[in-house]
UniProtKB/TrEMBL annotation:
PANTHER family linked: 2-IMINOBUTANOATE/2-IMINOPROPANOATE DEAMINASE RIDA, PROTEIN HMF1-RELATED
Signal sequence extent: none
Protein name from the UniProt record: Reactive intermediate/imine deaminase
Gene3D superfamilies noted in UniProt: RutC-like
Highest classification ranks of the organism: Bacteria, Pseudomonadati, Bacteroidota, Flavobacteriia, Flavobacteriales
Any single Gene Ontology cellular-component annotation: cytosol
InterPro entries, alphabetized: RidA (IPR006056), RutC-like_sf (IPR035959), YjgF/YER057c/UK114 (IPR006175)
GO molecular function annotations of the record: deaminase activity
Organism of this sequence: Urechidicola croceus
Protein family according to the UniProt entry: Belongs to the RutC family.
Superkingdom of source: Bacteria
Pfam families: Ribonuc_L-PSP
Amino acid sequence: MKKIIQTSNAPAPIGPYSQAVLVGNTLYTSGQIAINPRTNELVLDSISNEIQQVMENLNAVLEAAEMTFENVIKSSIFISDMNNFGFINEVYGSYFNENTAPARETVEVSNLPKFVNVEISVIAIK
């Protein structure tokens, strides 16, 4: 049985999808981009601020499912320019304990929704 996770503390979906779906004890989030949920504006003034907004959006979805980043077992990171990897990794890494960090992949893609620089989704378990 699946349960749809929805919170106003993360951007509303911009298409036919849910912010996250909980199946049993496993949470699957949709990809998050750097939309500030309070203003509905993109945060693109710096790559560090952009990734921080993405991570805060993911945090809000995790909290809505009564989880934290400690529950995350897998991350998928999509970036438009691998030259930004260091900046992204620095901010992303600050949200995890290095000793219990999740598995992940980072993939450079030709484009992302709204022409952002990064999109991240996670899988978490209780």
